Each structure stands twice: as C-alpha cells, then as structure tokens.
Amino acid sequence: MSTTTQELPTTGREIQLASRPHGEPVPENFRLAEAALPALEDGQILVRNQFISVDPYMRGRMNDVKSYSAPFELDKALDGGAIGEVIASRSAERKVGDVVVHSQGWREYGVVSAAETTLARTDLAPASAFLGALGMTGLTAYSGLLKVAGFKKGDAVFVSGAAGAVGSMVGQIAKAMGASRVIGSAGSAEKVAKLLELGFDAAFNYHDGPVAELLQEAAGDGGVDVYFDNVGGSHLEAAISVMNLRGRVAMCGAIEQYNSTEPPKAPRNLALAIGKRLRLEGFLVGDQREHAAEFAGRMGPWLADGTIHYDETIVDGLENAPQAFMDLLNGANTGKMLVKISD
User: Fold this and answer.
1) What is the pLDDT of residue 7?
2) Do residue 69 and residue 92 come from a single domain?
3) Reported pTM
4) Are 115 and 221 found together in one domain?
5) Are residues 266 and 318 in the same domain?
6) What share of the chain is helix, strand, coil (3-state, %, to 5)?
7) pLDDT digit string (tens) for 3-22?
8) pLDDT of res. 1
9) C-alpha radius of gyration, the chain, whole number
10) Rounded to an integer, what distance in angstroms lies between the CA atom of residue 295 and that of residue 143?
11) Residues 144 and 261 in one domain
12) Which is nearest to 58 in space by CA: 106, 107, 12?
C-alpha cells in the first residue's frame, strides 16, 4: 500500500525507561510518551510496527551495568524485536508495503536502516511467527541445541523454562532430531500438560518440590546428556547432579536470578563438572546468525507438516507492554510473549 508524504505521521507513542528497577520491575519504571519522528535519511525506512517482542534479556539491559549489550538509557525508548509494514522508504532495498523484522520495537513507528532489516514472507506464515518460531526465538533454540550443546541422535535432553518461547521449541526440535528422551520443567500444572501435548516425554512443575528430586525422578537411571538452561540457579544445580559423562550444557538464560538483589545460592555442586567432564557454554543468538539459513530450511517444513507447533501469548496495545514484560518475568506466558500494536 502506497503512502504519500502528506499522510506520514510526524510523532509516535513509545515506551520509555523512566527509572531503573531494583529487583522486580514495577509500573513506575516505565513511561508512555509521545515523541517526534526524525526525517528519513538515505537508506532508511519508516515502519509501522504490528507486533513487538517481549523478552527476558531486556531485564538485564534495564540495569546500569557493563554487559554484552549496552544498557537502556533513562528517558529514552526501550528497543527490541519488532515486525511491521514499511510506510515510507528512501532505500532501494525496501519498498512501501514490505513487511520487515527490525530492532526498533516498543514504539508505534520505527525509523531504521533498511540494511538492518529482514524481509518477512507473510505469505508463508503470520507476521508474529517471524518474532518467534521463525525468528530469533527459533534460531536461539535451534542453534543452542545443535551448535552449542552439540546435540546428537539418542541424547536425553532436559529443558528448563520449557513452556516459554525458546524452551518449547528446544524440546520439539530435540524430538524431531531423534532424542531418546526429552524432559521439561514449567511453573504450573497447565504448562506441564501443554508440554506433554507437544511431545515431551516427561515434565514437572518446579513448584511441586525440590527441583533436584523432581528432575531425578523424571530422568530415571538414564540421566541427561544435554541441558538447555533458561533458568539457572537451582535448575542448573539439579541438571549437573543428573548429567551423564561428557554431558553438555547450553546456557541461554538465568531468569531465576534476573530480579534478584542477592548473590545466587546455586549451583553449589559445580565441582561435579570436573569428574563428569561436563561442558558448560554460554551463548548469544547474535553469534549464531551464520546458521540462520540452515535453521529456516528446517523449521519451515517442520511447521508446515505439523512436526513443530508454537504458542503465542498476545497482549493488545503498546500501553500494556510494561505489564506484559512484568508478567513474562513471572511466567504468565505460554510460548512467545508479544504485544500487538496495529493490524
């Protein structure tokens, strides 16, 4: 759809970081504001966002500490994954009407370099899928399991936070690739039931008792060869205790301690990694982009033939993005947490 200069917006709403959270984020840490949109420069496009991604890693960027990604600035818009329609373009690479994935989320409109966007084939899948199963979420699961943890057919796999966007993909990919057993942890009976529907061989609610005991019961005598860690802390400690010789851990997240104001109490059994010859490796999806084409080539057919399913928790309205983020950190989502901005 063509849009003339006269129709283009000059301002847009955005979610700003009003103050830095101490512990769990609260509504007062965020602000809904109206901001002027800069004029397009050569090579840039104006995108009307349709969906924005809500992700746990954003919690770390709200702290003013040195990390792998720069902290969010106070009184400035947050950013994150988004997908939307190009409504103005000064680039030969992108035309008006294209639907693109980019990183200027948490606002109604994004002014971005066309070179930093990815074209979304919405004729093949809904736009929201390109922020989840067909986007960075899926690539995180695929590359973390296969490239970082070195999964091979016959491995027994444990996934923590398994009902979340990444975890649910990890378990299903492992099953599709020939895992001998896939175990997941989740935070409610409903989520446990969902994991079993998705094909997990076993799942447990980590609120039902000590995680180490629940995992030991689920793993049985076979132990675990690969642990995909989204939680850290007590889950990592439990996984180390049941891992087999030369087991591998892909360390993707540590949501158990994101809001903590005290040093973590676990894992206390890290020395077991020596005798078991375990490999624990942290990773960022940004380092895995070389596998994007391979991932897309596999995930597309898996989704098409029903081998892999995905869930979404969609919240309507930009103004509700902060609450969606707070709910995400408390496990209120099943699958990918998204905020719908426009049609």
Assistant:
1) 82
2) yes
3) 0.93
4) no
5) no
6) 35, 25, 40
7) 444 589 999 999 999 999 99
8) 36
9) 21
10) 8
11) yes
12) 106
